[in-house]
Each structure stands twice: as C-alpha cells, then as structure tokens.
Amino acid sequence: SALLSFSPLKQKDKLKKVTCKYNLDLTHPVEDGIFDSGNFVQFLNERIKVNGKTGNLGNVVHIERFKNKITVTSEKQFSKRYLKYLMKKYLKKHNLRDWLRVVASDKETYELRYFQISHDDEGSETEE
C-alpha cells in the first residue's frame, strides 16, 4: 500500500510541470500590411485568462514575438483551441475575418491563411 500512495504524488508533480508551447505564424498577412503583430500581442496580453481572470498572466503565460511569429508558452494546462478562439475574436474585431482564416499547420502551430476563392464561370444567378 506504500507504493500505491506514492505513485499518485509522482503524477501530480508531472502535471504541475506541464509546459505548453504554441506558435502562431502570421507571416503572410503581416508582410502584406493588413495585420499588426504588435497590436495582436497586446490583445493576447489583455485577453488571455489565467484562473478565470484576464490580465493575470504573471509568470504562468509568456508571449514572445519574433518578427512575424508569436510564441505562447504556458506553465499550466493551456488549450490550443483557446488560442484559436482568441485569434478569431481578434480577426472579427478588426474586420479581417472575411479574408483570413486560422489553420492548424501542425500539432503546436496555428497559421493565418487567406481564403482560397475559386472563380466559377457559372454564377448563382444562372441557376435560377
């Protein structure tokens, strides 16, 4: 029974040391001048919630900007989906939601891409 009571403690220690690292690739929109990465970092700093409170990043969540890439590192459990939610919220606020979409390019990275608009010769008007 001594072993059984010891193993959950090990698991708790592992859970506390969880670091989540996510990358946001904003290269194309920033180069085209329609997206301000500095403003977006400020938005993330104001909006990310830690323990249910905004503006409570402390030493738990770190946001770093390197040129057109942003890295969000968290020492607590941090959902990648939450980052996507915040990115979409920012795009909506700045009326960019119609042109840009948030795409997961790999397990730890989100990328802003333009919508691919296919030009069909037949419009919806001719189908009437």
From TrEMBL:
GO terms of molecular function: RNA binding; structural constituent of ribosome
Keywords: Ribonucleoprotein, Ribosomal protein
Gene3D superfamilies: 3.30.1360.210
GO biological process, alphabetically ordered: cytoplasmic translation
Pfam family for this entry, one: Ribosomal_L22e
GO cellular component assignments: cytoplasm; ribonucleoprotein complex; ribosome
InterPro entries named among the record's database cross-references: Ribosomal_eL22, Ribosomal_eL22_sf
Record bears the keyword Ribosomal protein: yes
Assigned protein family: Belongs to the eukaryotic ribosomal protein eL22 family.
Name of this chain's protein: Ribosomal protein L22 like 1
Native species: Laticauda laticaudata
Name of the gene: RPL22L1
